[in-house]
């Protein structure tokens, strides 16, 4: 009997089945249940996928108990301190840190794909000016595929790489356009002389009537924000991209589906919700009322920016963002932001409160990011767009990894059926 196995017994029939246990390079091993229906006639049930590994991946490792996050083996703390977003993009996509020559080539390719088809600007005109920018992003990113029909054969590795560059390069342009459209300012074209993050901030805040110098403080803060949001294993939006891509849908459609999933306040929409919550609390003296509501099982209110499906310790990204928030607000002379004071007091009270301690609810990546984005001048309804912009490389790298897999097949979960048993149709005139 292979030691690396799990034997289960169906007590109804007395039948036993031995399932292989597969070890990874880090983290819990998995039991392979892919044949359990064939061998046992049973499905496994795991709503919310709390105990389910959906794939094998070499990209990101998370240890929720230790608060560890590695990208291709590199600790997030080191990448946030020493790297830049575009280099992390290279690392996530290609699996190693680039040499100078590799990075120069990668940077040139990305820089020269940042423009979008002039016709695409007209898509924005169809939205109301007060449309949520995430609604716009879901639409325009999916629509990008309509400009590239000649290179959408997802089973062709070269087509996949071209699409990856196009998505990575054009997301900043589309994101900045969604902001400019909302504020009624002209769209700003990418500037090839600027680096990736600088270029995005320039497209966001420059206007045609005068030159705009992007502050290095803002660039550094945005680099950190984007590195910390780049990828995060099989979260809801990444799993959405994988499932959509598994049907051989084109990557623009798959990423558009991921943007939709990220929008939810339980996921990437939390950063916008945190600022709304801090604003609603309004006064540090009212924190107790909201802590009580968060603990009340009858109240649907949750402390936005707290809790995580995987981290049962401090989200390592939140730790880095906490320090960055202080630094950025200091450098931008915004330490008087009342929401920072409320956030710090809320964090302290929550971390000492028995309810949060017992349920291992710690601040997550969304708790501090909004304070930094707000200090940079990003409006609240753009926070999740920034998250989508940063996470696009995670979606792209995970999609590329899936599509390169031998034997890749469509994801199609089953169910436990609890509906009506077979019954005959009753003509309407005979119904009671
Ligand atoms: C992101 O998956 C990822 O990696 C996501 C992400 C990424 O980078 O992709 O890290 C980004 O989405 C971060 C999470 C952002 N969301 C929020 O901040 C929203 C607030 N948090 C919660 O909605 C919640 O914590 C989740 C959705 C994040 C996690 O939900 P789980 O794992 O399903 O946990 P749960 O809802 O089962 O909660 C466990 C218990 C429950 O109490 P009981 O039913 O056991 O009595 O903790 C309670 C919950 O009521 N709880 C909270 C709470 N979060 C959980 N109570 C108050 N406030 C909260 N924030």
Whole-number radius of gyration? 24 Å
Give the H and E element order.
Answer: EEEHEEEHHHHHHHHHHHHHHHHH
User: Helix proportion of residues, in percent?
Assistant: 40-55%
Outline: globular
Any low-confidence stretches, pLDDT <50, length ≥5?
none
Structural class: mainly alpha
> First CA to last CA: what distance?
61 Å
Number of helices: 18
Query: Overall mean pLDDT score?
Result: 95
- Give the beta-strand count: 6
Largest sheet: 3 strands, antiparallel
Spatially, the strands of the biggest sheet line up as: 1-2-3
Indicate the proportion of strand residues: 5-15%
- Distinct compounds present: s-citryldethia Coenzyme A
State the gist of this model.
By secondary structure, the chain is mostly helical. Helix content is 50%, strand content 6%. Helix 11 crosses helix 18 (383-404).
Task: Tell me what the structure shows.
By secondary structure, the protein is mostly helical. Helix content is 50%, strand content 6%. It is built from 18 helices and six strands. A hairpin with a 7-residue loop joins β2 and β3. α10 runs antiparallel to α11. The protein is globular, with a radius of gyration of 24 Å. It starts with a strand and ends in a 28-residue tail after the last helix. The structure holds s-citryldethia Coenzyme A. The site of s-citryldethia Coenzyme A has 22 residues, from α17.
